[in-house]
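Lab manual, section 2.4: Encoding a predicted structure.

Procedure: take the sequence of the chain (241 residues), apply the prediction step described in section 2.3, and record the output as structure tokens. A sample record is shown.
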Amino acid sequence: MAENDLDIEITPEQESELEKKWEQVGISNDFVFSKVMLDEDLLAELVHRILPGIEFTKLVIQSQKTVEAGRDTHGVRFDIFALDDEDRAIEIEMQVLNKGNLPKRMRFYGSIVDQTMLDKGLLYSQLKDSYIIMICPFDQFGRGLHKYTFTNRCKEDLDLELADGTTKIVLNASSIADDIDPKLRAFLDYVVGKPSEDEYIGKLEEAVKKAKANKLWRVRSSGGRRCEAAARTGVKRRQSI
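Recorded output:
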């Protein structure tokens, strides 16, 4: 963090509480998730479990990618933004809190993804496919499904797709339904803390431990954890000199 960043004054007890919480976090922590998924093999396996119908051989990955749409417009920070070898965009969020705005948020995220994919002078027809994926420990739609996949269809003829290349997926890790492939089920169970003998889950667990032990990432994440403590307890911030 820069020297002129806001310094949060918290007590040793609060610092100890935050350290304990940090030791307990897992893949459902968005910061940890974004760091673990920098590993191309781990991300590729997750994408294949969520999107078994697409094939690729390479992913170019950006973690915690920040996009400012304009000086006076709302920006975004993607947990994971990746392009495959056909330039298809895959944006994945670990969304733990239900703020009641997920559909509109996905709409906005999709618009920002499109902006990053279409440079000045290119034709609309050159836009590649995009996938906006939200991983949640709650059921946004209350239907009990593990996986909700949305594409744009004609209301008058549901067999007619707009074919604009956009797909939005909401994953509900809290579901108990038997409605998805066991490999994706194993990952979603892991998100909510259920044990698994799946080999991929074992690799994720090891990657989570390494991410949490990384001193640089630990320091970077501490800024957010300190702000959380400040908001909860009302402690004041001071500007570093």
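Check your result against the sample. The longest helix spans residues 215-233.
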